[in-house]
Amino acid sequence: MSNERAIVHMDLDTFFVSCERLLDSRLIGKPVLIGGTSDRGVVASCSYEARKFGVHSAMPMRMAKQLCPEAIVLRGNSGVYSKFSNDVTEVIKESVPLYEKTSIDEFYIDLTGMDKFFGCHKLASELRQRIIKETGLPISFGLSINKTVSKIATGEAKPNNEINIIRGTEKPFLAPLSVKKIPMVGNVTYKTLCDLGVKRIQTVQEMPMELMHKVLGSNGLTIWKKANGIDNSPVVQYQERKSISTERTFGKDTTDVVKLKGLIIAMTENLAYQLRRGNKLTACVTFKIRYSDFQTYTQQKHIAYTAMDHNLIPAVLDLFYKLYNRRLLVRLIGVRFSHLVEGGQQINLFEDNQKHLSLIQSIDKLRERYGDRAVISAAGMEAKTISRWNPFNGEPPPLLANRHQ
């Protein structure tokens, strides 16, 4: 049947560690931890040798060092990882008709209908070998009729291997695995399921759908479907977004520096939030200012990859102070982030200040719930009309409202 889907999930094994090993072969075979290196740091990636000691990603670095004292600890270099990630993306892009890049190190590939020509497993296998040969990075994949089963299969294939789940065997493949293997079952949900005596996927398969709904709401339904190997979500063609920006034209030209500064902070916070929502980071900030005589000036600054307010706001304000001429009336200001890369959540773990990271994550949760102007810094309070716009859904930005004094 040609309408049967064939979906591959590919995931680069311990990606950051693998990149570091390509740069320094002495790291091969040794326990390696990558992340924020101070006591407040968090593990962004760890080698299989370190995992044997119970280390896992997102663990506080201090704890990881206690568990595995002989581990080599590295700061991590997001620019290097982005380059390797792009190398892998290029190989995939040249080889398949439809792929989706969901983070810096994982991809979904839709090979539906390709079996008429070569056989999907053979095609995926050859692609995997090509990636290993051309980039030197280990990569694993799972192949099945949908995203969920393929992603779980990749987890079972690791390290550096592949699994093909034959159509019709999805349920028996999933049955013996822990419910934790289902994407979207985090620690809280796992605890709820454990309290119900549910540890294996098979138990969920045997439960009535209504019971899962009663216990976990709509989440329960999704988990039940995934446990039963049902997932109709499509592979969405990947498009690299190069930049995001926002600008504001004043209804009345101004020299009010307090107002300007407040607005710049609000614009920067808003764009940073959009970056985090899209799981992206920026390495270049640009500030633009136009005076009442229509003279326009822009300046940019390269920074370490980030999506964090406390890194971006000072960079943008620094550009503003360099460009601002106090004697002139300002007509327009704009902020732009470019050189974007995906996989922000992982790379943000290099942040040494875990408090900052936790705070930002809590604030973002509130924004998701109550709107993206729900929580803003005091300095950004003035700017009431920063647009609510998700730059990663392909829609053009709305025109920002002019605000008359």
TrEMBL record:
Major site of localization recorded for this protein: cytoplasm
Domain named UmuC: residues: 7-186
Any one Pfam family match given in the protein's UniProt record, by short name: IMS
UniProt-listed Enzyme Commission number(s): 2.7.7.7
GO molecular function annotation: damaged DNA binding; DNA-directed DNA polymerase activity; magnesium ion binding
Textual note on the cofactor: Binds 2 magnesium ions per subunit.
Record-linked InterPro entries: DNA/RNA_pol_sf (IPR043502), DNA_pol_Y-fam_lit_finger_sf (IPR036775), DNA_pol_Y-fam_little_finger (IPR017961), DNA_polymerase-Y (IPR050116), DNApol_IV (IPR022880), Rev_trsase/Diguanyl_cyclase (IPR043128), UmuC (IPR001126)
Keywords tagged on the record: Cytoplasm, DNA damage, DNA repair, DNA replication, DNA-binding, DNA-directed DNA polymerase, Magnesium, Metal-binding, Mutator protein, Nucleotidyltransferase, Transferase
Localisation: Cytoplasm
Active site residues according to the UniProt entry: E106
Catalytic activity entry: DNA(n) + a 2'-deoxyribonucleoside 5'-triphosphate = DNA(n+1) + diphosphate
Family matches, as PROSITE patterns: UMUC
Required cofactor(s): Mg(2+)
Gene Ontology biological process terms, A to Z: DNA repair; DNA-templated DNA replication; error-prone translesion synthesis; SOS response
Domain of life: Bacteria
Residues flagged as site, Substrate discrimination: F16
An annotated GO cellular component: cytosol
Amino-acid positions noted as binding Mg(2+) in the UniProt annotation, renumbered to this chain: D11, D105
Function: Poorly processive, error-prone DNA polymerase involved in untargeted mutagenesis. Copies undamaged DNA at stalled replication forks, which arise in vivo from mismatched or misaligned primer ends. These misaligned primers can be extended by PolIV. Exhibits no 3'-5' exonuclease (proofreading) activity. May be involved in translesional synthesis, in conjunction with the beta clamp from PolIII.
Subunit text: Monomer.
Family per record: Belongs to the DNA polymerase type-Y family.
Name under which the protein is recorded: DNA polymerase IV
Native source species: Paucihalobacter ruber
Gene: dinB
